[in-house]
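Example 3.2
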Amino acid sequence: MNDKLQAILNSVFPFMIAGVGIAMAIAVLIFFYNVIIWGVLIGAVLWAGVFIKNLLMPEALNTPKSRSKGRIIEHEKD
């Protein structure tokens, strides 16, 4: 009986490893696509927010940044 059980296990074991490998590959793909979908959704929401902000307040884009004039303080060397 032990020899038959050992023979069955020896013939089934490679298929079990292949099944686990395929299941893990599918799980990784599902996880990867889930992350990509959420990234696209969050990116689209952020882009839409900035787009609407620029439509409602366009002066922020056209206002030149004023450069403040500073003064140079020179020190004498000792």
